[in-house]
Write a structure and sequence with these properties.
The chain is an alpha+beta fold. The protein folds into 2 domains: 130 residues, no CATH class; 109 residues, FdhE-like domain (FdhE-like fold, Alpha-Beta Complex). The protein is 46% helix and 11% strand. Strand 2 and strand 3 form a beta hairpin.
């Protein structure tokens, strides 16, 4: 694990002690996956086709056709399940053991879970979770996390060649997924963070990334009492929201995947306010 990531976790925990358990668990999961090799196939097309996609507002890949290394993701999920099964025996432990057994005995089981995530096929994910007695949200989180090494490799291969300054859409320029976080940089410019592959790109502040609403009367934000630099921007037209970190308020720039987990309380507040 990089020193920067460890420093970021420590920094967030000092500010928000309630995030300690979830961030330390996340760190453990990352450590379990860090030596898993993943294969990234040739991801570049002809320059003319890439330019056409950008001009027409198409991401490099459709989400469901990302060149994911399912073998590497399966090994990652297996390691995570093995680790979790070591905890004291609970009802969830039995479900985790059943899940691990499925992964080991049916080579296509994990791949079908990953494919359901990429296709946003929530009924299929729910069905797979029921097969092993695991909560759907738990399986979704762990399986999606297991895709991270492969998705990071894809992003690394693509990101430096993207003209992200010219990308003004509310979805990811690599995989077309929606953002799950945003941040304001030191100059106040807004950036969005992809919920799937983790790519980041700039986006206008006074514009809803989900429905492109620009009516300032229908846009707004709120924050949790006593927390500086953390906001929830919302749109009254589409009823969507996005959590946002104002980096001008913090000394250290922390990764958005950590901030997403450390701000789950803001999701609860947003849902109480009627946003999705």
């Amino acid at each position: 694990m990089s020193p920067h990531l460890q420093d970021a976790i420590n920094y967030i925990v000092r500010q928000r002690p309630f995030s300690k358990d979830i961030l330390h668990s996340y760190k453990t999961f990352l450590q379990l996956m860090e030596d898993i090799p993943v294969t990234v196939p040739e991801v570049w097309e002809k320059e003319s086709l890439r330019r056409l996609k950008k001009d027409e507002g198409f991401p490099l890949f459709s989400r469901e056709n990302l060149p994911v290394d399912f073998g590497g993701a399966t090994r990652a999920l297996s390691r995570i399940m093995e680790h979790l099964c070591q905890d004291k025996k609970t009802q969830e432990t039995e479900a985790l053991q059943a899940c691990l057994k499925k992964i080991n005995e049916d080579k296509d089981w994990a791949k079908s879970v990953f494919s359901a995530i990429l296709n946003k096929d929530h009924p299929a994910i729910n069905k797979k979770a029921k097969e092993v007695g695991l909560q759907t949200e738990r399986l979704y989180f762990l399986a999606k996390l297991s895709l991270k090494p492969s998705l990071d490799a894809i992003r690394s291969a693509c990101s430096s060649n993207l003209d992200k300054q010219a990308w003004d859409y509310g979805y990811c320029p690599i995989c077309g997924s929606e953002p799950n976080m945003g941040y304001l940089d030191k100059k106040g410019k807004r950036h969005l963070h992809c919920e799937l592959c983790g790519e980041e790109w700039t986006y206008p502040r006074l514009n809803c990334p989900f429905c492109k609403n620009e009516d300032q009367q229908a846009l707004g934000y709120f924050h949790s009492e006593g927390e500086q630099g953390l906001r929830v921007y919302f749109c009254r037209v589409c009823k969507r929201y996005i959590k946002t970190v104002d980096r001008r308020e913090f000394e250290l720039e922390t990764p958005m995947d950590l901030e997403y987990l450390a701000t789950l309380h803001l999701d609860i507040l947003a849902e109480k306010e009627g946003f999705e």
